[in-house]
Amino acid sequence: MTRPRLISLLGSYGVVLALLLLILFGWARYDYFLGLFNITSVLRYNSMFALVALGMCFVIMTGGIDLSVGSTAALGSVVAALASPQGAWIGLGAGVGAGLCVGLINAILVTRLKIMPFVATLAMMLAASGTALLLADNQSVSVSYESGFTSIGQDNFIGFPIPAWIAIMAYVVGWVVLNFTSTGRGVLAVGGNEDATRLMGLPADRIKFLVYLASGGLAGLAGVILASQFGAGQPIEGVGWELFAIAAVVVGGTLLTGGVGSVGATLAGVLLLGILFNVLNFENGKGWISLSAYWQSVIRGLFLLVVVILQAKLSSRGSVAVRDY
Amino acid sequence: MTDTARQQLISRPFDPFDFMARYGTLIALALLILFNFAFTRNFATMQTLNVNLTQVCTIVIVAVGMTLVIATGGIDLSVGSLMAISGALAPMIFLGKIVPIDNVALAVAAAMIIAVGVAGLFGLFNGWLIARFRIQPIVATLVLFIAGRGIAQVLTNGNLQTFRVPQFQWIGLGRLFGIPVQVVLMVLLVIAAAWMLKRTVFGRQIIAVGGNERAAELSGIAVSRVKLVVYAISGLCAGIAGLVVIAINSSSDANLVGMGMELDAIAAVAVGGTLLSGGKATIIGTLLGAMTIQLVRYTLLANGVPDAAALVVKAGIIVLAVWIQQQGRRA
């Protein structure tokens, strides 16, 4: 195996390798790390981030960005909580619908008005957050417990948390769409070179429209899970989710310039960042060290730092020539 | 420039979008002020002016640095976290939690210099990641966005630091010739940055890097150095803003200082007419942009509209401003 090939392989599977190593470390060091309770609680909590990161991954692959996902999730959680007395499915639909609305506006701003994704979704981040606060009257909205809405976030299906099932299904769909449909290939084409994509006759605007719509819908779904898991719609939750999602996508090896990306690696990125926090909790529990929760963000930041520096080194040295000069 | 091109320039018909892109923010600000004179009670008072100016100050100070960063085609997401770090460090120093210093003036001076300096160093670190490893600015500064607030929280163990030190709080509460000190600070920073951008070689280099990095490099500009310096300046500005915020509050809460500031600053820059893709920047525009956003919020609040609705309006303004600019450029 030649050296550049080895490096590019490491770039693709590095995150999976790191995830396996971290799990191995946790398994060897802590008694209950791979216990059912820990696994299900980690999955239950991180499935929300996984959904948001999946949408983000698609948006980033087209060369865009979606900063509105966090407040869209907050809006989704509020709308779902307000609709939950009408029934679990209606609550679910309302939350996802609210997310789709935000996604729709993002899509129109980006593809029709040609506003830079960064600005358009930044504005929608404010607008969605304002709408969530207005609807919720500045406080959290308790969900209906009679309608069964809370089972979406709290119950299990075949011994596995329902949110995790939802996330897994979303990732399977995402993987199939990316790899086996013309839209999916189009996503990568648009991110690789938008002008060339247009000249080849691919519907670049329609593809971009769809990714922003999907990102909004997935964020809304994450909001539904949030409301259902914690029993309340939370208008001020979701702060910083967009950046966590971007971090997970980047750790997964997707280039922010678009054109390259992997759905599976994004999931690995989410799990890696989530389990890192989990390991920290266990380490605190052992009593050898006592790190406050505040260390969590420092360690995540350091981790992101290591990953981006490694990526930059790999891409400048390996076969992936990112810069053309 | 060819003759035909020159002719086109001279005889170009009046383009409303171009006009709005140039003067829209100024007109909006003027209209807002007129509206308030007419409809908002007690608008024409010194108190209103002071409230608005002191609230907009920290945003403008951060946005000045942000404008320079954006002019090079970058972005700095870490400013809010750097404010938290500087806001956490300064009280630790002048309250003597690190090393006891007997002389208050000395302690305050040390606190200010070290806190702002550390923020500047973190800014330099951002620049180093971007220039040395060619990491995209949004990712490179994301690192400190996440880790920076954590560092501030770890430093203070998440505790609120309260203090009554008039010598320090002078920068947030004091007055120079009747004008609040932080307003003077803001004006000085704006003038210095505007002058630098327009009149110095370094200022022109910033614009050149943002306009076409490759061309700038080929024409002998030290692109890496330019980037290092603008991110360091952005860090310094954030550091100063952090001090102002905690001085006003008489307390420092690492969980809250500078929260969401990166978005406010970017919004001010965008509304002010600086191109977010780099290559064109206006510091005065940023000042006007920040004041417009602030005045819109004030107008809505003073007329009984809830703060949450003001967020939605702010979103609309950002989109509208950027859209008008783009139409102007295309024409």
Structure report:
In chain A, 52% of the residues are buried. Chain A is built from 13 helices and 4 strands. Chain A has helices at 3-29, 36-61, 69-83, 88-111, 117-136, 151-154, 162-180, 182-192, 194-199, 204-230, 241-251, 263-286, 295-317; strands spanning 141-142, 156-157, 160-161, 232-233. In chain A, strands 1-4 form a two-stranded antiparallel sheet. Chain A has a two-stranded antiparallel sheet with strand order 2-3. Chain A is globular. Chain A is an all-alpha fold and 325 residues long. Chain A has one domain (13-25, 33-317): ABC transporter involved in vitamin B12 uptake, BtuC. In chain A, α1 (3-29) packs parallel to α12 (263-286), α4 (88-111) packs antiparallel against α5 and α7 (162-180) crosses α8 (182-192). Chain B is mostly helical and 331 residues long. Chain B has a domain at 46-260 and 276-281. Helix content of chain B is 76%, strand content 2%. Chain B has 14 helices and 4 strands. In chain B, β2 and β3 form a beta hairpin. In chain B, α3 packs across α9, α3 packs across α12 and α8 (181-199) packs across α9 (201-211). The longest helix of chain B is centred in the middle third of the chain and has 29 residues, at 104-132. Chain B is globular and about 70 Å long. The two termini of chain B are 19 Å apart. The mean pLDDT of chain B is 87. At the A-B interface, α5, α11 and α13 of A face α6, α12 and α14 of B.
